[in-house]
Amino acid sequence: xxxxxxxxxxxxxxxxxxxxxxxxxxxxxxxxxxxxxxxxxxxxxxxxxxxxxxxxxxxxxxxxxxxxxxxxxxxxxxxxxxxxxxxxxxxxxxxxxxxxxxxxxxxxxxxxxxxxxxxxxxxxxxxxxxxxxxxxxxxxxxxxxxxxxxxxxxxxxxxxxxxxxxxxxxxxxxxxxxxxxxxxxxxxxxxxxxxxxxxxxxxxxxxxxxxxxxxxxxxxxxxxxxxxxxxxxxxxxxxxxxxxxxxxxxxxxxxxxxxxxxxx
Length: 264
Hints:
By secondary structure, the protein is mainly alpha-helical. It has helices at residues 15-35, 45-71, 79-88, 96-113, 118-126, 128-143, 178-197, 205-221, 238-257, and strands spanning 4-8, 11-14. The chain has 9 helices and 2 strands. A hairpin with a 2-residue loop joins strand 1 and strand 2. The protein is globular, with a radius of gyration of 19 Å.
């Protein structure tokens, strides 16, 4: 596709970086106006923007760390080679679940530190995540990362740009557009959560619905991915194992917090 949108001298604008930034802006732009009508006790403008910054930074750090962990054997034969390749792929090479785990952990710590209602605040914030993620996956599509397996289906996509992140042997081969599968699903999920959040609900319900829906979608889409997925456990990729894990966490939240009467 178009991994680099344009060059100005030595500067190049990477499509992945641009779409990731736009995803952050879109999520923040969706949530910020709704903060005025929010009844979340203690959630000020300053705390809101601090949480978003923590989430964004955590997503970058966690996504890169998990990428390094699952890709370590593929990064080179020597430590020098591995470090060189890590630096080379700083613009790409992120694993969503790594970013999610680190950003959520950091956000939970920050919310508890400032005595914010954890589930209610999470319900408010989580609605913006699939909107930003949808744009980020379009960035993956433009860059050629997270590509799918070869397919004979009529919507198979051929990547021809040699600068894309598609494996060289798959250039020109019709592939599952797994990036667009995820982008479309995330957009639908955003709309569903948007309307669900407008109705009376128990605190934590929107969060759990996001976790269940995304975990199921990711588990399925992983079967169509053609890029290196890390080591496998019982035939499942690391992201599929994590999907099962966070689905179990969502079930725990549901059983422990959501079975009783609605609370404020």
